[in-house]
Fold:
Amino acid sequence: MSSEVTLKHIAEALGVSAMTVSRALNDRDNVDKETKKRIRNKAQSMGYTPNRVAKSLVSRKTHTIGVVIPEITHAFFPEVVRGIEEVAYKSDYQLFLTNANEQFEREKEAIETLRAQRVDGILVSSSLTREDYAFYESIIEGGAKVVFFDRCIEDIGASCVSVNDRESSQKITEHLILEHQYSKIAHLSGPQKVSIGRERLQGFLDAMNAQDIPINEDWIVQAGFREDTGYEAMWSLLQNNAGNLPQAVVAVNDPTAIGAIDAIRDFGLSIPEDIAIVGFTDDIRSPLLDPPLTTIHQSAYEIGEEAAKKLIQTIEEEDTEIEKIEVPTTLQIRSSCGCSYD
Amino acid sequence: MSSEVTLKHIAEALGVSAMTVSRALNDRDNVDKETKKRIRNKAQSMGYTPNRVAKSLVSRKTHTIGVVIPEITHAFFPEVVRGIEEVAYKSDYQLFLTNANEQFEREKEAIETLRAQRVDGILVSSSLTREDYAFYESIIEGGAKVVFFDRCIEDIGASCVSVNDRESSQKITEHLILEHQYSKIAHLSGPQKVSIGRERLQGFLDAMNAQDIPINEDWIVQAGFREDTGYEAMWSLLQNNAGNLPQAVVAVNDPTAIGAIDAIRDFGLSIPEDIAIVGFTDDIRSPLLDPPLTTIHQSAYEIGEEAAKKLIQTIEEEDTEIEKIEVPTTLQIRSSCGCSYD
DNA sequence: ACTGAATATGTTATCGTTAACATATAAGAT
DNA sequence: ATCTTATATGTTAACGATAACATATTCAGT
Structure:
């Protein structure tokens, strides 16, 4: 990519100094109107494009934001990215997108690279599953501007945008208890190192406790976030509890629920008659499933918007407060929970 | 983002020159082993991150690729991006992602910005209509490395990666004719300004002509690319041809087909008994539809991979050939065409 | 012991832009 | 006519890394 035309070239062509050209093109006022016009015309005709690399070297700002997502195929993250994109575009920031593919090693590398690129800030939805905050602690300590979204790492000095996972999880669990009188409820939980894994489990427990329902530890199984891990977790739950099956399952997210649905079917049971199930996320496929999946609808776009706004604020203003921003959810009732829906 | 530690800092801390530090960290061989070790340890302990901005200024390479997509919500593009990401990651390139939101003005701006960022190359799926080459011609003329994907602009000196739309469209139409003996076939076409709209219509016509089936102009209706436009187009087709309905419909893409299915149902007809329908794209929802949609499966991931490979090759090697790369499609038979499928 | 090569290090200039300071010219005030 | 002040422009250095060239030091070969 070689635009090649530099300030110097323009300066030489017009017999002025590079500085004057710089001033003219940046529309400073202490440049003669005539000269300014001449310079700008020349710049135009020579096809000048300012070199942001050089500019960044001087200003120590790149006007770029790094985005690290753990996954790009399922609809949620692209939608978040769209929200980020929109806000970034309006504030004239460019986006560096990196997909960590659910591997923390890649996430780390991505962030190293982004820092080497001197992005002004980073938006992360972490794939971290181990107890290893050290990496984030050190980069935040080192002055990096970071805002987490959806999958947050808390109490390490960074803001975070997500839905109120705990409350939403409680809400959907209570729907099962109060509307359908289920009391034997299982939970396919996410990794406990990831905030949404913990929060959603907590919400589930809150609902059970609030309704005085005893909790069966055997029915709380660690599933990942994906379809295949959901299938496996559900399958082992069914196997290990053959004599005492739950009436309903709360899955940590929709892909997990989708996998679980297959497992339940393969086990020879029907949904929601034998086992009801609910998810979380409202995946684009969820209304089309058989039966359509009852889930928590979260506005991915809005999460993206809020995260980008907060990050840009953190970049541009001194001493911005560290916040935990919650984007509201809605309960999306369909029929996998036992409700009728069309 | 301030890593702050520079070569100079390390140099001062150790009483050597910055150049020696640079050499040591880049693992050049003419540096004393002991010194190298000392320098590397120090760099590590001081938390040094090389500044790519400065590096780029010297090398005139940024090791970044700009990606411009017209849309990010539709599952297709995120999947393409994943393919690009994977190849870029392996070759150690970073991605600048921009979403033009189907607006050519934004696409242009995005590209200007990417060039100012001095990306090494750009991957574009254009929202541009055919009439307006000039912009791309001039930047390609100016030495920009560009590879188009999916929505291509041809014959302007850039490579292009896409699916063989025309042939694939013919293939799926012929499936309706040869396997199901339909002869009364309608086409919900895409906008004729967009290459895939034109190509797919052509493929449809090719199939009809090859099998000597007369074409009924009333059954060729312009639909957009979206669900809502698909619904409208199908609805008006049904209304306007109430006395003489087609037996089957070829839709320009899956969202259009999804809209059309609703329209057919709302009109009181059943699928595929009264009217069969096929799509193009293989949307993530298509196997879940009722009935599951027969369509053309295009490997978005592979399109991304090929495009990224070609671009990196164009960047790194002199005089790479300009190619039109076609990624094969497969006919994804389900039951909306009248086949049985489970 | 002396030359030539190899090894290890330092110095200077450069990439393109801009901040900070310096200078020249014109216009206004006394 | 001289001194300010404002306006317009130029010069230098810096951002951080590195290529190109320069200089020490060591060591083998004769």
Observations:
- Chain B has a mean pLDDT of 92.
- The longest strand of chain B covers residues 64-69.
